[in-house]
Amino acid sequence: MQARLIESLEIAPDVLHFVFEAPELERVDFIPGQFVSFTDTVHSKNITRAYSIASAPADTNRFELCLNLVKDGIFSPHLFAMKPGDAVEMRPPLGQFVLRNPPRDSILIATGTGIAPFRSILQAHLNETSQAFTLLFGVRHEHSLMYREEFEEMARRFSHFRFLPTLTRPEPTWTGRTGRVQAHLEEVTGGRRDVDFYLCGLKLMVNDVRTILKEMGFDRKQILYEKYD
Fold first, then answer.
1. What's the rounded Cα separation, in Å, for the pair 39 and 74?
2. Which residues pair with 197 in a beta bridge?
């Protein structure tokens, strides 16, 4: 099937928020946290890449992605050059990076565009009666806190949601948390051991956080993750 670009918007330096539709479908069915795979011919080669969906399921054939430009990459420059109306081949959503059932209080840890599946999960699952969520989101600069206003509004609306951004290269005006997400694991757990962790971002972060959490006494079954190079 095809995915046709509706619009794209820069939400951080070298990061675009994409809105696609699947014209052959009435509805794109997926579980929050899943990904779609795009395939296209780039430099005479068929290239396939997987991207986490950044929006909640809806009764439409539209879905959203959050992608960063890999300047020396092959596929992301191709997608960044797309104009509204352009299309790319798409495979149906797949993936196991979804909330456990039954759900428990959950700590979501993201860096960079690893925020995408958590935006989908929170839009779909956070409500007055849901389990508690904590989102620990690490980026370099304040201007790279994608969807910051959305998450801050969620925190205002729901007392059982905490949004904890942290910066590794803060400006002097920044008064929030600093350093890598790894430095804030004790804070986000608050001494609890009855929570589930969901990690998404570069493999170095994911591997490091998994190691630290296991050293803190968490079982590997409590830690779900999705990582990329």
1. 12
2. 107, 223
Between CA 151 and CA 160, with CA 155 as vertex, the angle to 5 degrees is: 125
Joined tokens for residue 49:
């890449």
Sorted by where each starts, the structural domains of the chain and their CATH numbers stand as 2-94 (2.40.30.10), 106-228 (3.40.50.80)
Calculate the CA dihedral of residues 56, 62, 65, 70 and round it to 10 degrees: 170
pTM of this prediction exceeds 0.90: yes
Handedness of CA 168, 228, 94, 26 (dihedral sign): positive
pLDDT digits (tens, 9 = 90+) for 146-176: 999 999 999 999 999 999 999 999 999 999 9
- Nearest one of 86, 77, 89 to 38, comparing CA atoms: 89
